[in-house]
Automatic annotation (TrEMBL):
PROSITE patterns given in the database record: PROKAR_LIPOPROTEIN (PS51257)
The protein's name: Multidrug ABC transporter permease
CDD domains tied to this protein: ABC-2_lan_permease-like (cd21809)
Organism of this sequence: Paenibacillus flagellatus
Transmembrane annotation, as ranges: 16-37, 57-77, 98-123, 143-162, 169-194, 214-232
UniProt keyword terms in alphabetical order: Membrane, Transmembrane, Transmembrane helix
Lineage of producing organism: Bacteria, Bacillati, Bacillota, Bacilli, Bacillales
């Protein structure tokens, strides 16, 4: 596992994925801040009003797309020049290959989440919002990251099977709207993209009850286990088509 992780991390050297990790949170925050500024006469809840605007664009759209981009990127080199054939023929378990890619994606998204939280604090400070920085937003950010782990396992399964870089990203975008629909239908705990909305308190800042909080962590853990197991089993039973 350690060797696989080191190999995956080495592939990211001199890559431009960090630029994407920075640009998408910045763009989403700028859009949210502009929307907040233009509607500040209506949005009167300070830090929390700002969160509703920036997290809506970031957590609902930009973050799922960012996860899909990271998953496609870590699989991109393996789909070229028959690298999959060499990798699967090496003395490394299939589970290690998948888990290493998933761990790398998880760390990349953790970086994006930390950057987003820092930018949110900076924006609130520049707007001179009243009151102290709401520490619960850190918890919302970390819950969003944990929900991202389930989405990452979901997206990585598609990126492993599909050679196209853009197709898994399109699937992610479609899944966003499915997740939004399930959230509105009060079925958010049944789909990982809806869990991201719940975890980051994108559409509602109401505190989760103890049972809801437990269900959130349990559901995400279950999705991670199921999606990872399905992808690993498929890698073991079917050849990967590489170009």
């Amino acid at each position: 596992m350690k060797r696989s992780f080191s190999a995956e991390w080495l592939k990211l050297r001199h890559s431009r994925i960090v630029l994407v990790l920075v640009v998408l949170p910045v763009i989403s925050l700028l859009i949210g801040c502009a929307n907040y500024w233009l509607n500040r006469g209506v949005l009167q809840d300070g830090w929390y009003s700002l969160w509703t605007q920036v997290s809506l664009f970031y957590g609902e759209f930009f973050l799922p797309i960012l996860i899909a981009i990271c998953c496609s990127y870590v699989c991109r080199l393996d789909h070229l020049n028959r690298n999959w054939n060499m990798m699967l023929a090496s003395p490394v378990s299939v589970a290690s290959v998948f888990l290493a890619k998933w761990a790398v994606v998880s760390l990349l998204i953790l970086f994006a989440q930390a950057l987003f939280a820092a930018l949110y604090w900076l924006a609130g400070t520049l707007f001179s919002l009243p009151g102290a920085f709401p520490v619960e937003t850190i918890g919302w950010t970390m819950r969003g990251w944990y929900a991202s782990l389930a989405i990452g396992a979901w997206q990585l399964g598609f990126s492993l099977r599909i050679r196209s870089f853009a197709t898994p990203i399109g699937i992610s975008l479609c899944s966003v709207f499915i997740g939004l629909g399930l959230y509105v239908a009060k079925l958010g705990f049944l789909f990982p993209f809806s869990l991201l909305t719940i975890g980051m308190s994108v559409l509602s800042q109401d505190k989760l009850t103890n049972s809801q909080n437990l269900l959130f962590w349990f559901a995400n853990t279950g999705f991670i286990a199921v999606f990872a197991s399905m992808s690993i089993r498929r890698l073991k039973s079917k050849d990967v088509v590489s170009s």
